[in-house]
Task: inverse folding
């Protein structure tokens, strides 16, 4: 989660082994995130912070140090519909090595392949099924637009894969639920999802698939907000799937070309 202390500790360990080039691969659903922008700043790839800094993780052992973090007397509102956290000031990490930061998962072909398989596990009559891809999504409106564009690109790739195997799905929609946004935005996203599932159910079967990296409970919140509606769901996330190892390998190969 772009934790400054953890990243700095990792850099120190690598440089102590003589590493002069570091490829950082963000295993995140989207590149369009304040966490990615904070990572860019910490790694010296961005001149200034574009967003309010995220509070550091709690390292009770203190082994990673806190040289790059300064407490502020001010408070800042982040996530969970108005929860207040202390504001922290960050500075770029101390790095001697050359850093290359690769893109996140975004609309990568491997993600489309995994999602296509997740859908296939629930599908019986593709031509009579509406698929709805649901991702967590960011707070920022511009970021959210980019998330949705990537999801729509994944939808097109999934439909192409399905048509190669036979008949395509009736429709594929994609949206974000924006769990951490302000309450009015959260409520609007929730109603949009419910409305989409409800309407699609009038014209065939509905399959809802979470576009989440790993299982941790937040993906099941999607199912909970659809209580009372009819749809197919198994809650499976991208992990575990060995093809994500291919994504990591490909990311490294692409970085080495630069």
Result:
């Amino acid at each position: 989660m772009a934790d400054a202390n953890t990243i700095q500790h990792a850099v120190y360990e690598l440089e102590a082994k003589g590493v002069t080039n570091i490829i950082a691969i963000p295993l995140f659903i989207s590149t369009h995130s304040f966490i990615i922008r904070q990572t860019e700043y910490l790694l010296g790839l961005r001149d200034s912070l574009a967003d309010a800094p995220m509070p550091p993780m709690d390292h009770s052992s203190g082994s990673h140090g806190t040289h790059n973090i300064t407490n502020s007397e001010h408070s800042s509102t982040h996530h969970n519909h108005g929860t207040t956290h202390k504001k922290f000031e960050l500075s770029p990490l101390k790095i001697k090595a050359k850093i290359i930061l690769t893109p996140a998962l975004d609309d990568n072909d491997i993600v489309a392949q995994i999602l296509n398989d997740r859908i296939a596990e629930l599908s019986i009559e593709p031509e009579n099924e509406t698929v709805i891809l649901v991702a967590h999504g960011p707070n920022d409106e511009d970021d959210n637009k980019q998330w949705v564009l990537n999801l729509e690109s994944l939808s097109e790739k999934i439909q192409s894969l399905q048509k190669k195997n036979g008949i395509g799905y009736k429709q594929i929609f994609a949206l974000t639920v924006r769990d951490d946004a302000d309450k009015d935005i959260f409520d609007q996203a929730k109603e949009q999802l419910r409305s989409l599932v409800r309407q699609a159910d009038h014209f065939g079967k509905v399959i809802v698939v979470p576009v989440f990296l790993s299982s941790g409970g937040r993906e099941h919140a999607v199912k909970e907000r659809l209580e009372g509606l009819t749809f197919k769901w198994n809650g499976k996330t991208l992990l575990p799937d060995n093809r994500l190892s291919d994504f990591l390998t490909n990311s490294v190969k692409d970085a080495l070309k630069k």
